[in-house]
């Protein structure tokens, strides 16, 4: 193969390859996609973050919602009833909320304007 032919192949390869040959990892990529938060859930998330801060000593701003799921709880216990307590037997709309700060995760349930911490 002639030098001109080798040079032509090298230029062609470089042109076709462009940035697609870059195999370095994208260090700016987010480690986890952000969760979509319904506007109705914002107040419940704020209450949960405040509770998480008082419960753990980790600042409320450090807690982020990693999962927010609309739910219909079977009663006013919001799916996390306290032993010995009676709850109104009414379907209560709200959210299951998972917060994360570092390696810590806390789960809350919301409904009827309040949140409850659900012990794992």
Describe this protein's structure.
This protein has 120 residues and is an alpha+beta fold. The protein contains two helices and four strands, in the order H-H-E-E-E-E. Strands 1-2-3-4 form a four-stranded antiparallel sheet, with helices on one face. A hairpin with a 2-residue loop joins strand 3 and strand 4. The protein is globular. The N and C termini lie far apart (69 Å).
Topology, element by element:
Layout: H1 3-17, H2 42-56, E1 64-73, E2 92-101, E3 104-111, E4 114-118
Antiparallel strand pairs: 1-2, 2-3, 3-4
Largest sheet: 4 strands, antiparallel
Secondary structure category: alpha+beta
Strand order of the largest sheet: 1-2-3-4
Q: Figure out the total of helices.
A: 2
The strand count comes to 4
Calculate the mean pLDDT score and round it.
80
Write down the Rg.
26 Å
């Amino acid at each position: 193969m002639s030098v001109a032919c080798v040079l032509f192949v090298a230029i062609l390869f470089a042109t076709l390859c462009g940035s697609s040959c870059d195999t370095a990892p994208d260090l700016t990529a987010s480690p986890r996609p952000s969760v979509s938060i319904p506007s109705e859930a914002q107040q419940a998330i704020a209450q949960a973050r405040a509770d998480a801060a008082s419960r753990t000593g980790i600042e409320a701003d450090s807690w982020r919602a990693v999962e927010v799921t609309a739910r219909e709880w079977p009663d006013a216990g919001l799916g996390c009833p306290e032993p010995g307590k009676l709850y109104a037997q009414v379907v209560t709309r709200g959210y299951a909320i998972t917060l994360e700060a570092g390696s810590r995760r806390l789960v809350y349930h919301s409904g009827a304007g309040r949140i409850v911490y659900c012990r794992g």
